[in-house]
Amino acid sequence: MRMAPQGWVMALMLAGGLARGFSRAADLDDAPIHYATAPENNAVARLQQALDTGKAKLAFDKDKGYLPAILRAFDVPVSSQVLVFSKTSLQRNRIAPKTPRAIYFNDDMYVGYCQSGEVMELSIADPSLGTVFYTLEQQPDEPPRFRRQTEACLICHGSSATQGFPGHLVRSVYPDPEGQPIFSLGTSRVDHSTPLAKRWGGWYVTGSNPGREHLGNLILPKNTRYQPSGNPHGTECNDLGRFFETGEYLSKHSDLVALMVLEHQAEVHNRLTRVALETRLALHQQEEFDRILGRQEKGPSESTARRIDSACESLVEHLFFADEAPLGGKVSGTSGFAAEFQAKGARDGRGRSLRDFDLTDRMFRYPLSYMVLSQAFERLPAEAKARAVARIRQILLEGSADKKYAHLIPETRGRIGEVLAGSSPVWKERLAH
């Protein structure tokens, strides 16, 4: 019997903190989460049901396997393709500078593909479980079967790097000619707070970043002992053909803008997962203590409320792009990703959207994440969603003395509020009261 590989890693996870990862993963398998055994409630699980009953089919491509069919089935744009060539995931033997791994994504899902890989790799936001991981064997089975991955994935994806909750990791490393990270030079975990100069080591990057270097497209000799002082490929690249055969992929791009959105969105999903699961754990543990101690109080205790508030504040910080690294000038991609991404956004009466890019001083024109309109946000536990909504409302209407929100001057807050209310009847109601 064939055994599907267990778990998958979006980018490198260092060994530190694995002990806590095991501990937290064990906690998640207990009440009230039951991560490994609770039924999923997401698009992958629903597609599997449709495949099992014959109501849906996935075409198998002789060159790319299930990749084209998966992207169509879940409405994941080909333009979102980004390419990582460092050996920092499960199918590392398939990954090298000549055969990078492709990642595709939409607002809810991430899809990983390796040339001649044994499996497709997927992760998706789930309202009950946070982030859920799957593999799909690259064999023309009937029907295809998405295999849910738990324990092995949580060794990395439920570690201290994700605060013990199921999540994603995006890393920047210094790769050698085989794609092996040179660990002595260090690594960085990347999100929108990371300076561009430290991003994308081990990734291919197409796009323009005039006069400011990043680490993309850089390959170092094996014996390199010091971090390089410059990157000849790190300001502008429109053609990856010098590095590998681009015709082996669905797109010839590894779009700079798509990479920036991926980094931001993956961290939002991590914090949404933390809020959802931390809230459920906190309320469950309070119920247990109340039962043991015979307490009759209604609602969250002070300590429970603090736990939920802390997780919500971390989420709100990221939604408002607190500590976003300044771009310092115009950046641009090479594919149609930016236009396709913006076209999907809900718009207010003046045609404005939270998905509108700035790409000169900051990533987005209106610094409140489009993910505030996502299903993952709306499906947060009621206690957590109420707190997150109240905090967002407070910041937009009253401002905050906290310096991490100093970029939200009154004019900016006013515009964000207008766009948010005009884009969503739900948020219009929330901001009116």
Write a short abstract of this structure:
With 433 residues, this protein is an alpha+beta fold. It has a domain at 269-432.
Radius of gyration: 22 Å
Relative strand content = 5-15%
Estimate the mean pLDDT confidence. 90
The coarse overall form would be: globular
The poorly predicted ranges are 1-23
How many helices? The count is 11
Strand order of the largest sheet: 6-5-4-3-2-1-9
What pattern of helices and strands is seen along the backbone?
A: HHHEEEEEEHEEEEEHHHHHHH
For this structure, the quaternary state is single chain
Cα(first) to Cα(last) distance is 59 Å
Largest sheet: 7 strands, antiparallel
Structural class: alpha+beta
Number of strands: 11
Roughly how much helix do the residues carry, as a percent range?
A: 25-40%
Please, could you describe this protein's structure?
With 433 residues, this protein is α+β, with helices and mostly antiparallel strands. The chain has a domain at 269-432. Helices cover 33% and strands 10% of the residues. Helix 1 crosses helix 4 (151-157) and helix 10 (410-423) packs across helix 11 (425-432).
